[in-house]
Specification:
This protein is α+β, with helices and mostly antiparallel strands and about 210 residues long. The chain has a domain of about 130 residues. Helix content is about 20%, strand content about 10%. The N and C termini lie far apart (about 110 Å).
């Protein structure tokens, strides 16, 4: 006696398989979307180094082996890179760029966009703008303002650390990176580790000397 296949059972199996495939597809979509959003968020807050004339600071754009390396993809000195090419919309050297890198001081204050556009109101190259005028306190071109060579975060201080440079779409440094540099400490690292915290210890320390 031959047994006929149960069409209802076969349909139920196919339905279960289809539901599993749909579930896996949905999870994959969520994963891809989440990864893309995370990548965008990270890209929007890209740290590009410090605008500084200090050639010994690793983060300085004047250090050819650090942030100023012309072969570094994120260096503003890389004429073929996204932030240094005269054809890139995010480049500091493109006079028509609309998303040029942004500058921030130690306190997280915005210091203008680092671009060569003399007509952009926020450009450091605009001699009449807030961030480019030699008479504006917020301008890096004012030797008595943000460009004071005795300020630790001044780009013109060869012993300082300069201003932070961030991607043009960035909202600036994260809260946990603001105020890392002290006003009188030009050599402070961009990230303070527990091992380095002893340099800021204000209490009494026993050096082993006897009275």
């Amino acid at each position: 006696m031959k047994h006929r296949a149960d069409p209802c059972g076969a349909d139920a199996s196919r339905a279960r398989i289809l539901n599993i495939l749909l579930l896996l597809g949905t999870l994959a979509c969520y994963f891809v979307a989440g990864s893309a959003e995370a990548d965008d968020a990270q890209a929007d807050n890209t740290y590009l180094g410090q605008l500084s004339t200090n050639p010994y600071n690793t983060d300085s754009t004047s250090n050819p082996y650090g942030a100023g390396n012309p072969y570094d993809a994120n260096s503003i000195n890389n004429r073929y890179g996204e932030y240094g090419s005269p054809h890139s919309n995010k480049s500091a050297t493109n006079p028509y760029a609309t998303e040029a890198p942004k500058l921030y001081d130690d306190d997280g204050n915005y210091r203008g966009c680092l671009c060569s556009n003399p007509y952009d109101a926020e450009s450091t190259s605009n001699p009449y703008g807030q961030y480019g005028s030699p008479y504006s306190a917020d301008s890096i071109n004012n030797p008595y303002g943000a460009g004071n060579p005795y300020r630790a975060d001044s780009p013109t201080n060869p012993y300082g650390h300069g201003l932070g440079i961030y991607d043009g779409e960035s909202e600036g440094p994260a809260d946990d990176t603001v105020d890392v540099f002290e006003a009188d400490d030009w050599s402070a690292p961009s990230q303070v580790s527990p091992l380095e915290s002893f340099s800021t210890y204000d209490g009494d320390y026993d050096y082993g000397y006897e009275d």
